[in-house]
Amino acid sequence: MASTTPTDHKVPHISTVPANAGQNVRLHVREYDGTPSGPNAQRKVVLMLHGRSVPSAVAFDLQHDGGKYSWAQHLAKAGFDVFLMELTGSGLSPRPEMDKPCNANPQHQEILDPNPLTYTCTPPYPHELGNSESEWGEVDAVVEYIKAKKGVTKVALVGQSAAAFVFGPYAIQHPGKVESLLLLAPIYPPAGRASAPPKSFGAPVASFPVSTPASLFGFPMNLSSRTGLESAWDKEVRSPKQRAAGMVDAVWKELMAVDPVGKAWGGPTAGSPEGVLRFRNSYWWGWNQDTVPIGGVLGDQVPVMIVYGEHDATANSPTFSVPAFYDAVPGVRKLMFRVSCAGHSMVWERQSKVLHRLSKQWLKHGKVDDLEKGSFYVDEDGAYTDTL
Which InterPro entries match (predicted)? Predict the structure, then answer.
């Protein structure tokens, strides 16, 4: 029987993040062990990864309304052993150079006035925090930890939003470790950043661009306020039934619970902080129309499923395109679902129930109902329409 009590792990790793390179760090990973017990039980392991700003503990394990929106718990109850990892600079994993308010994006420093700053300043650590190579390395450390601990050879990857920048290239480089790839609202720039000449990274696929470029952005940490969260979400909410009442407050409360430093910052009144969301600034490369087809891995050795909301204007913009990612996947083992009445924050919206259903079938059977490949629209009654 699935456990509703999580187990927290601290996964050892030698950091390659420039801010603490070479240090022994502990990456935060939460586990819900839902695998059936017994001599004939088949263990299926899922690893979930957050996007750019919201840590996995809140993205995939929101406790509001009795855990109704916890994607991780729904998968555990379906019999999967679920792990939620947080990269350096997010959640309860290490946050080097992120406890100094001046290390925020200078454009966001007004969020810090007057709590705790009363002046503008230049970041004393003038570099981005992580990069593609450091984050691929952290994922590999967690995958190897899970394989050894659970006695499996492959792990199913589930990522949200900008997790595509990390899980996508990782799956291409390590298909022997990845059972399948499920991406919710994946950020995919067809003309995305390339890299400098490649260098060795474990056993990369031939021609995969792997290199660490020079710092360009000049700060390690981004910030967002509660108002910013609500404003961005509101832009994609098209009807009252899309999001339950009180969800913004519920999400913000849990974000502040996993970041006591950020909780003490922000707000317009001195001495009365409202809290800020702190998240890493990473330099990503190697995720574009040239890299997705490398080796013919995606859609072949690694089956791919994509889910996104019809109102998602974050993953679909002049720069990003979810359908373009589907088209770029070279193999035929690929499914895509555009879900009605949902946006980029589907994990916290009423249509999260559709996401839970689709993902459970995909992870268990490699298909959804009788659908093994193709692109479909899911209406509010749960019916599928072929969009190709």
Answer: AB_hydrolase_1 (IPR000073), AB_hydrolase_fold (IPR029058), AB_hydrolase_sf (IPR050266)
Q: Which two tokens stand for residue 257?
A: 């619970």
Provide the whole-model pTM. 0.94
* CA distance linking residue 98 with residue 89, whole number of Å: 7
**Which residue from 99, 143, 81, 381 is spatially nearest to 265, judged by alpha carbons?**
99
List the one residue out of 364, 350, 372 whose CA is nearest residue 69: 350
> What does the block give as tokens for 24?
């022994």
**Which phi and psi (to 5°) does residue 181 adopt?**
-130, 120
Give the number of other Cβ atoms within 10 Å of residue 195's Cβ: 19
Q: What angle do CA 48, 53, 57 make, to 5 degrees?
A: 45
Q: Domains (ranges, CATH) in the chain?
A: 7-94+132-218+285-386 (3.40.50.1820)
Query: How confident is the prediction along the chain (388 residues), in pLDDT tens digits per residue?
Result: 455 789 999 999 999 999 999 999 999 999 999 976 655 567 799 999 999 999 999 999 999 999 999 999 999 999 999 999 999 999 999 999 999 999 999 989 999 999 999 888 889 999 999 999 999 999 999 999 999 999 999 999 999 999 999 999 999 999 999 999 999 999 999 999 876 434 433 334 445 676 555 555 689 999 999 999 999 999 999 999 999 999 999 999 999 999 999 999 999 999 999 999 999 999 999 899 999 999 999 999 999 999 999 999 999 999 999 999 999 999 999 999 999 999 999 999 999 999 999 999 999 999 999 999 999 999 988 899 998 6
Distance CA(302)–CA(74), nearest Å, equals 23
- Among 331, 384, 333, which residue's Cα sits nearest to residue 358? 384
Structure tokens at 378: 């899911």
For Cα atoms 213, 219, 223, give the angle at the middle one, nearest 5 degrees.
Answer: 130
DSSP 56: H
- Asked whether 165 and 175 are in contact (CB, 8 A), the reply is no
Cα distance between residue 216 and residue 383, in whole Å: 46
